[in-house]
């Protein structure tokens, strides 16, 4: 709000008149909302936001507002003004996919009380901020014509350009694991087995640091190899009724088992059947439980002493032992 004060001289008397005028544009807040993923591989998670309490704002030629994405860790930013827009949109929800922007598909989804539209945007800034790492935290901002933020989300980690490779041998499934995946994150396979509107959790993958794949047995589960499925990578295990939990990082979808992905032996570079570990650690995971015990470490030390294992390979076994 701004205050206008006028001093009007009437004869010998000065009269002070005060009035107020509203600042252009209503005040509003935005927050992250449930988001989808664009694919096929590589997959990128949408940056989807909504206004709080159903408030709206405008984007378009008659609006002073623009969308900006910021990477707080580096200060990099990309601004996305509407391009060649002939209409001003009343917006309560918007979504943009970084992977699509990188591929030159420069559309934004905007929704309001009465309509959903897909206007083109121009890209101002370096899209390389999305490509330098698979997982990073991003803020979405609504900025005014001077570049000042008027509404900002909290930072939220999202996956961009996540490559998915699948191996399946009929009893065990392996999904490629990006080296940037935090070992503390929760990973599950999701599939629609009941005919409901959404996929359901079928099984949990072991998320072992230093491995190339998430691996899990499908035996005694409801997994149907003839149907499409997805995986969900979360910072923490979601509750059973959470449709779009805050901890979602990325959710590749419409995955399927093809003839090329079927193998006859161990999957996911496993050296021991059933072991999710790769490399020298997998060679000494005798029970295939994804950990290295003191006995298994002792076997590796003996192999090193006999010249059958290099110092680097022994180091890999020791690292997994320390994490077990």
UniProtKB/TrEMBL annotation:
Protein name per its UniProtKB record: EF-hand domain-containing protein
Organism (species): Halorubrum rutilum
Top-rank taxon: Archaea
InterPro entries: EF_Hand_1_Ca_BS, EF_hand_dom
Taxonomy of the source species: Archaea, Methanobacteriati, Methanobacteriota, Stenosarchaea group, Halobacteria
Record's compositionally biased regions (Polar residues): 267-278
UniProt-annotated stretches for the region Disordered: 263-299
Domain (EF-hand): residue spans on this chain: 283-307
């Amino acid at each position: 709000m701004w205050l206008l004060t006028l001093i009007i001289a009437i004869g010998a008397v000065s009269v002070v008149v005060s009035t107020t005028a509203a600042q252009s544009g209503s005040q509003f807040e935005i927050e992250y909302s449930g988001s989808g993923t664009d694919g096929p591989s590589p997959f990128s998670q949408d940056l989807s936001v909504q206004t709080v309490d159903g408030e709206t704002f405008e984007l378009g030629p008659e609006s002073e507002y623009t969308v900006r994405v910021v990477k707080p860790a580096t200060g990099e930013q990309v601004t996305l003004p509407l391009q060649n827009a002939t209409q001003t949109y009343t917006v309560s929800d918007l979504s943009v996919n970084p992977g699509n922007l990188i591929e030159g598909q420069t559309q934004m989804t905007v929704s309001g009380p009465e309509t959903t539209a897909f206007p083109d945007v121009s890209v101002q800034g370096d899209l390389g901020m999305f490509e330098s790492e698979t997982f990073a935290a991003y803020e979405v901002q609504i900025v005014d014509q001077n570049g000042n933020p008027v509404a900002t989300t909290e930072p939220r980690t999202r996956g961009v350009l996540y490559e998915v490779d699948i191996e399946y041998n009929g009893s065990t499934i392996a999904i490629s694991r990006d080296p940037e995946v935090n070992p503390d994150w929760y990973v599950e396979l999701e599939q629609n087995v009941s005919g409901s509107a959404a996929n359901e959790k079928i099984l949990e993958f072991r998320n072992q640091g230093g491995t190339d794949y998430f691996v899990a047995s499908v035996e005694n589960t409801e997994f149907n190899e003839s149907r499409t499925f997805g995986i969900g990578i979360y910072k923490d295990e979601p509750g059973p009724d959470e449709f779009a939990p805050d901890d979602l990082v990325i959710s590749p979808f419409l995955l399927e088992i093809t003839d090329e992905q079927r193998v006859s032996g161990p999957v996911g570079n496993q050296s021991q059947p059933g072991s999710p570990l790769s490399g020298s650690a997998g060679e000494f995971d005798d029970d295939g439980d994804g950990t290295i015990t003191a006995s298994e470490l002792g076997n590796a030390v003996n192999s090193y002493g006999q010249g059958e294992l290099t110092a680097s390979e022994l180091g890999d076994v020791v690292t997994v032992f320390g994490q077990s």
